[in-house]
Fold each of these.
Amino acid sequence: MKDLAKRFPQNPLLMPKDLVASRHELQIISLLNPGVFRFQGKIWLLVRVAESIAQKEGVIFFPVMNEMGQMEIIEVPLNDPDLVATDARIVNYKGLDYLTTVSHLRLLVSTDGIHFSEPETCEAALFGCGELERYGIEDCRVSQIGEDYYLTYTAVSENGVGVGLRVTRDWRQFEFKGMILPPHNKDVAIFETQIASKFYALHRPSSKEIGGNYIWLSESPDGLHWGNHKCLIKSRPGFWDSERVGAGAAPIRTPYGWLEIYHGANAAQQYCLGAFLMQLEDPAIVIARTNDPIMVPTEKYELSGFFGYVVFTNGHVVDGDQLTVYYGAADEFVCGAYFSINKILRAMGFGPLL
Amino acid sequence: MKDLAKRFPQNPLLMPKDLVASRHELQIISLLNPGVFRFQGKIWLLVRVAESIAQKEGVIFFPVMNEMGQMEIIEVPLNDPDLVATDARIVNYKGLDYLTTVSHLRLLVSTDGIHFSEPETCEAALFGCGELERYGIEDCRVSQIGEDYYLTYTAVSENGVGVGLRVTRDWRQFEFKGMILPPHNKDVAIFETQIASKFYALHRPSSKEIGGNYIWLSESPDGLHWGNHKCLIKSRPGFWDSERVGAGAAPIRTPYGWLEIYHGANAAQQYCLGAFLMQLEDPAIVIARTNDPIMVPTEKYELSGFFGYVVFTNGHVVDGDQLTVYYGAADEFVCGAYFSINKILRAMGFGPLL
């Protein structure tokens, strides 16, 4: 297995202690999975900030947004027989599922792509809004389409886990477009270029029975309403991506096809990155896919954290051959790594690009 | 619990032995869950026909459509340790789910709405087509929108369970519109009237974790691409519809609102019918819902069959106050029942209509 990533020596770029919690009664548990975009000549991260109440011994808390948009806390003793808490990220209490944290999205800006700080001129945080986002919003992809930025994010509530969309041009005012893909769905990356006047998006529905956690392609006339869904990339038994796969950020246009960086996980919930290539004219046709991951958790900050052995990306910037991937490490830290687009293509049997 | 249904004395209207299997090597296991529409002055059913291979002792078969559209058979000894067969409808073999039958849709026509026979002038059967329908197509709703009939059906394959759409005007030629809602989704009923130039549909996504089997509402500019999903009707702990709910056929316009007949099931998988009412101008607003079911399995043909204790509808016709519901009984028989729309509205505290 050949790891193609050149990690930033400055990793982790951001840790929970680097930011201030959104309310005084909360603490930041994790920073993770940033959306990435260029705006006004700078590089911006839209980091997922996962918060909870400061923990007491023997008790678990689930934070939930109430109908007034305020945080409510459900408190349960850890020895409650109705509590099933076997995963750091999700618990079941009296038959209902809850997240152990509530996430919002925080804007950070950088001139060098390495040192990030909170912006002075923009709305710095986006919170869940309405009854479909009561458990928070997560893992935002940012696609620039013309002058508009399309923000697709995981919207979580007791109704299920679906995909919300907000659109902005100035990062001050956001148009709320509602839930564009119903439960159970996440990992939505809208293509930044239309093909034959159609919008395209990758998404990752999950099946309760029959099927799995696969990457699908969808079409839209307007970026808001989606149809003609097709199954594109499946998990592969016996591979590093045997349990689930999901798209990263918007695909990168290359002469050989649309290049997509994706995450895959095995049954042990170990998350690596891979790549696949879609035909330029018809992205429903997958031309190639890496057999081995292009990035595997190896560093301490990737192996150990809120949820260890995870590298997960949903944001990058491109400069010629250089792909700068920002990623969540161990579901706790924000990190960066450089890739050569040529080398990724070569790993799939294509190239070199001139 | 007050059952508002007046069952046809002729029930069951159709049984597996009444039709001929689609291929000589197959047998019809069940007839169920018809879509219903009027065309050329007659009443038509689009019945789901579930077929399998004639069973041998000690062996289970899963029928699957191959890429050439031909039926392939997977044969597994019942004592195979990799086989999990605890449900009559679905089995798990080597970690993958299979249906025990493959369904197609069969057209039947009647002048009196009671005696149905195969038509002479139309395409009599619709089969699964393409890689998203390899395990068959099921439970079709037929919505008449202008001169067009929109057929929304459950499309099943190893990729998952989603919703396919075909459109026809003459019941001879069908336009295939692909999968309009990705897995896991079913029970889609498109409103037959647009509201403020928008198409609306009820649908039933299922959640793998967080959320449940709830009825959602969706909007579309063209009937093909769907967005702005909202959660409308949830299952109710302690009620007859505690485990799952799903829309029936297209809602019925009444002066008090859009009337929808829906199915609900409890944890024991007992399926009854209920009703709810949506606001005319904005169907995202639910005005009322029956606490008790309006129809409960009581007859022998409802209590006992391929999957007992089931009444399930996705088709009806309306004549003034009379609602004629066609329904699947015990996942094996096609039956009919009359309801008074006034009485259903009254059960929700509305009416009477003049």
Note: Residues 341-347 of chain A form the longest helix (7 residues).
Amino acid sequence: MNNNGADSAKTDITEQLQAYRGEIDALDAQLVELLAARKKVTSAIGQVKRAHSMPIYVPEREAELIAKRRSQAEAAGVSGDLVEDVLRRMMRDSYYSQHANYAKVDASINNIVVIGGGGALGKVLVGLFQSSTYQVSVIEKEDWPNRKALLKDADAVIVAVPINQTTQIISELPPLPEHCVLADVTSVKLAPLDVMLKVHKGPVVGLHPMFGPDAPGMIKQVVVVCDGRRSDDYQWLIQQMLVWGAQIHQTLASTHDEAMAFIQVMRHFSTFVYGQHLQQENPNLSELIAFSSPIYRLELAMVGRLFAQAPTLYADIIFNNVDNIALLKRFHQRFGEAIEILESGDKASFIERFTEVENWFGDYAKQCLRDSKQMLLKADDGQLLRKAP
Amino acid sequence: MNNNGADSAKTDITEQLQAYRGEIDALDAQLVELLAARKKVTSAIGQVKRAHSMPIYVPEREAELIAKRRSQAEAAGVSGDLVEDVLRRMMRDSYYSQHANYAKVDASINNIVVIGGGGALGKVLVGLFQSSTYQVSVIEKEDWPNRKALLKDADAVIVAVPINQTTQIISELPPLPEHCVLADVTSVKLAPLDVMLKVHKGPVVGLHPMFGPDAPGMIKQVVVVCDGRRSDDYQWLIQQMLVWGAQIHQTLASTHDEAMAFIQVMRHFSTFVYGQHLQQENPNLSELIAFSSPIYRLELAMVGRLFAQAPTLYADIIFNNVDNIALLKRFHQRFGEAIEILESGDKASFIERFTEVENWFGDYAKQCLRDSKQMLLKADDGQLLRKAP
């Protein structure tokens, strides 16, 4: 083949690829139109649901919708996982675009007071109550002297102040109307519940919404509920959270607090130490990221995110409960013991202990591997820590 | 309104919702058809690219494609992030459906020998070379006595045996053809490179593919490249990995090994200790998961996944380099010091140290927060650890 021939062959390929890319572009343009059309329908559904106090997130409908499309996809030679991932991503969007349209579950309830409603979680709650057309008032520090007047007509009082002020604020509450629901949203439950039951004779419930300010609402998020008193009389609040999409997990305050030692204190504390360790070892961070496997980029992102947030929030969570220090000390000791195994070169003992943990995890280990694999693929899709900051 | 009226109103709503759901189903069915049509076009593109040795993953084309659809979406009132996420997910699928169609970059290269080609990473490499129509032979333990005959016509020898056998295997290599490329894919680079340079006079390169067997190939994955000798003569291998979609990160073996102390040893070791800690504290795992925030479920998944894998693999990585023990000991000491701060109740000192780490992370902290937020939303989309195992 002479040079002219090679050139024209090259032009042919370029043209051919260009044509295919045109087809892809046309299909992708159709995709955007389809998303726009779908949004119109889901908005209309949101309006109907709001008008009739129906929950926006219906797990059964979601499961059925996905199952139908998976089987259609597989029949058409398209990956079922692809279709499920795309649908779930679309549904997330449609849930949140219906955000402004939440139903109000009980017409007889009106006055909601959020103490600390200007904070991160407080704002989320205020927004949700307002979207369901409640009358919401916020009490901040400067309003505290007037609390008696501000609280006298309350149907529900939600305490959403920082963890280390919670019990103090509750103990300073004036008498509330007898029907009023008193609730807090702190990340410990035993102590606040105790004080709430003392200061108020009406319905009392301890809540812990298990999500940070990252979450754009309550959809699919766990809210832990610890009963205080007269659960029938705060059921409207539980129902309201279900309308907002929450997954309610009812438990004892003591069980909750024990679990939080792992879920919050242990996690935040070791992340803090890991960050300190990095800072003091001082590796080149951009070099480290350039090298990283998806799993390490994910870990680094989880460490780094802590330090983009308010230190006082984490100091409060970590310092709140001295009981947790013993748990941290046991971790510290185990870390030391594991180093000793490493130093002695005793690989057999390492493998033996590894297997013990594997057995303890049981079937969950495989589930973790399977689910985390999907997350790592998504980390790559989303270019996690791949763009310069 | 009498009861009949209420009943018929309810029927109306049910019918109305039913109609809307029908519209959603019709749109979702169109979506699946669209994905099937798109797959046909991307397969055709894959064939053209293979025939002409062109890379499948072209970052610029990807960026341009996404930018176009984002602006179309925003003009149509659809979230740009939604469209980008959906497109990236679709592209992942199309990259991998083209997997069987990789081009071969150099027609003069034929015989590839993968020593340890039956292992997890070995299999991935064998599959990739085969998909690019190389002649691939695998040498396993039982073939080792015949290595001289098996290696005499090799154009490239890739050592993919477990880390603790790597230098031994390399030192036992017979003389290779002078043009043959000798490479290893172990997770340390200094020692293997050293031995490779000793046993072979031709082109030598140390590689570290930064991904586990989770990754269904090399697309978008980092491969660390440490030069040994005669880089011009192994460029075809680098080019080949680029065709497979790799992101090449060239560096010194010493820099690589230092980074791996963090990325692999530190990470795997502390995950191991955390798993042990959980096992010994013995909380109710399903209760813990039921309680968990998305961020804790993600952490738990990352811990649990370790214990669904082979203990020897991690033992080898962790025990391989005694230099890393000092790094682990410093972490252990910092953990102890942080507990002391906690015990003394010195919140101010905690906050001060927190701020130091925040400053060390600099702009990366915000990037971590932003990127991890997307990951946590995806964790919820994907029901991470939400289904029973």
Note: The CA atoms of residues 127 and 362 of chain B lie 41 Å apart.
